[in-house]
Description:
alpha/beta, about 45% helix, binds adenosine monophosphate
Amino acid sequence: MINLILLGPPGAGKGTQAHLLQKELGIPQISTGDMLRAAVKAGTELGQKAKSIMDAGKLVPDDIMIDLVKDRVAQPDCANGFMLDGFPRTIPQAQALRDAGINIDYVIELVVDEEGIVKRLASRRVHLASGRVYNELLNPPKVPGKDDVTGEPLIQREDDKEETVRHRLHVYQNQTQPLVKFYHELAESDQVPHPKYISIDGMRDVGKIHQNILDAIQ
Ligand code: AMP
């Protein structure tokens, strides 16, 4: 049983690393962004609420996100653990996990610089159905513009346009960055149980980062 949180700004490589870890550890990636995009695509009530918020690069309200994640981690496929990618994004979200008795073993922070991210996200392409992530420059698909597994077209996310990216980074600084301190303090506290905190240089290549993470948690 191992429960992980991947922490870092948009474009830090959380989704890419989560996909690699999922294969290695056999625990599901829980990407709240992917869940919301699926809801938007399916036109559910949640999707209708979330769409304009997401397109603007803002955060969906905490109560909605907390309920979504609590339900998700209670599913049978999480019995041996899970990886949270994109959650928590605020202190109340992190606090809600603790209040619900959902224990986290490791918080893995991917540390990246802002200009690097803006460049990275401009060339990011995604396969919506699977959540697979590519980068036209750094991690290109085998056939340009096509998903490696299904051959279906890749798209650029609406919120990966430069102006929205800058706004999302601003939201990250204000709302999510405080979690670095929150989890650092928790890791150093004598509260039982508490997660270990791991910082990893997210500007290195994908394979090296993956290895760093495995070394840190095994
Ligand atoms: P992501 O794919 O993680 O970058 O998420 C895309 C968008 O979904 C974000 O910009 C938010 O609008 C929304 N979102 C995803 N996760 C959360 C969360 N934990 N709290 C609030 N909004 C979220």
